[in-house]
Amino acid sequence: MSTPTSDVHATSPAAEYLAFTLGQEEYGIDIQKVSEIRSYETPTRIANAPEFVKGVVNLRGIIVPIVDMRIKFKLGTPSYDQFTVVIILNIGHRVVGMVVDRVSDVTTLLPEQIKPAPEIGSAMNTDHIVGLGTLDERMLILVDIDKLMSSAEMGLIDAVAA
C-alpha cells in the first residue's frame, strides 16, 4: 500500500529552476516567476528605502524596485561586476528586480531530487526556503520567491515604487 507522499512524487512533474549565485552559494527560483534577466545598471536611489532596496529603474514605463539579495541575506558587502545581473520577477501583481552575483543556468529537478530544508532554529528565518535541490555534486538552495518577496518588507518596497 502506497503512502500519499509517494503518490505525490509519482505524479509530480519535474520543475525548472533558474540557478544563480550569491557569494559561494547557489540558489534556485521557479523559472515561471522570471520575466527577464538584465545586466546590472545603477538604480535611482530612493530616500528612506530599506538598505536592501538599491532603488528603482524604469523598465519600459514600469517603475521597478531593485532588491539586492546579497544585502537582504546578509552575505557581506555586494560588489558589482560584468557578471552581476538583475532578474526581473513577476510576483502576484508586482514586478520586482533582484540583484544577484551571476546566473548560471536553468536546471530541471525531479521531486525526488528535492530534499526538505534543514531545521536551523530561530537564529535564521528559513520560511522562504523550499528545500535543497541536488544534481550530481551541485546543491541548489531553492527559494520560494513569493514568500521571500511578500511580507511586511514588500509594503516598504511598494512604498518605494509609488
TrEMBL record:
Tell me which residues make up the CheW-like domain.
Answer: 14-154
CDD domains this protein is in?
CheW (cd00732)
Instruction: Supply the alphabetized keyword list.
Output: Cytoplasm
User: GO CC terms on record?
Assistant: cytosol
GO terms for biological process, alphabetical? chemotaxis; signal transduction
Q: Spell out the subcellular localization from the entry.
A: Cytoplasm
Indicate yes or no for the key word Disulfide bond. Answer: no
Q: Mainly localized where?
A: cytoplasm
PROSITE patterns (UniProt xref): CHEW
State the protein's name.
Chemotaxis protein CheW
* Species for this entry: Rugamonas rubra
